[in-house]
Structures are given as C-alpha cells and as structure tokens.
C-alpha cells in the first residue's frame, strides 16, 4: 500500500511539473506595454518561488522511496527508477524557470535603464533649448555676447555616452521584440528633437562667434582711432601753447 501511495505521489508530482512547464515556459508572451512586461516579471518570480517550494516535497518523496527500496527491494526498485526521472525533470524545470525569470528581470532592468538615460538626455536638451533662447535678444555689448557664447559652448560640450547607451539599450529591446513600438516612438521623438536643437545651437554658436569677432575688430579700430586722436590732441595743444601760427604747420595739422 505504501508503494502504491508513493507511486501516486510521483505521478502527481510529474503531472504538476508538466502543468508548470506549459503555464510558465511554453506560452508565447508578447510584451507590447511596460505593464505587460512588469506583470510577466512578477509572474515568473511567483513561478520560481512556487517551484522552489516543491523542493521540500521532492526531498520527502525521495527519502521515503529510498527507505522503501532498502526495506522492500522488490517493490522499491521500480519506484527508484521513476523517482530518478522525476528528480531529473524537476531539476530541469527549476533551471529553466530560474533562467527565464533572470532573463525577464534583465529585460525589465534594461527598460528602466533606458528610461533613466532618456530622462537625463531630455533634461540636457531642455537646458540646451533654454541657452539657445537666451542668445536671441542680447545687448550689443562684447561682454554679453562673450558670456552667452561661453554658456552655450559649455552645454554643447555634453558627452555622447548617454546617447550611445540609449541607442544600444533601445536596439537590444527592439531586436527582442519587446516594447518595440513604444521604444521606437520614444527614440524617434528624442532623436528628432536632438537633431533639431543641436543644429540650431551650432548655428547660433557660429553666429555668436562671428558677431564677437566683428565686435572685437570694431573695438580694436575704435581703440586705434582714440589713440591717434589723443596723439593729435596732444600735438595741437603743444602748438597752441607755443603760439605757433597755423599757416606755419603742415597741411594735416591746419
């Protein structure tokens, strides 16, 4: 009777494993929204816990069958053979569910990381847009133009590492068919805004550089003119002091 019960327990255990495999490993999942992906991650975590909780039952079953095989070899040997098959299948099921759970957790982590990088780069784009707008109505002063140019250039020196991460993470998920529509839409919007603002910022940078160069050249010309006028003023003052008649001076001094 004990052998019959143990055989029944083995059959139930095998049936449970078959159902678990069909439910957790053979279903085709399509992750088209973050909610679907998150739910799948939580489901696989529960599946892993459920499978691992059966470990105690498997161990008890194993001990009982081995004890029976020791006491009644004729009845227990067939059970030992069946037990080995169940143990092998159970271990395989555990490994596969652990693997799938780990994979889904990695995918979810990849999605969260992508969102974080997009947030960082969006904040940078907002800053860049603000700096570009600030260069629109500058006072016609060299210091103001110079400060605006330096401020814009400091933002443009932003490293490209985050954008590389966005591209690689997005492509990894899209290649796996995971959230591909949502990610494609996000990347398209981000890249379009990045290209537009980058080109506008570089164009404004060139304009400011040219404006600054013109202002510096004008300032230099005014400085030279002022120095020449100062020299002329000193020379004329000396002529007046010495009471020299204008007709005695060179034509330019007259």
From TrEMBL:
Pfam families the UniProt entry points to: Spectrin (PF00435)
Keyword Nucleotide-binding (UniProt): no
Coiled-coil residue spans: 3-64, 208-242
Keyword Metal-binding: no
Keywords recorded for this protein, A-Z: Coiled coil
Name this protein carries in UniProt: UTRO protein
Lineage, opening ranks: Eukaryota, Metazoa, Chordata, Craniata, Vertebrata
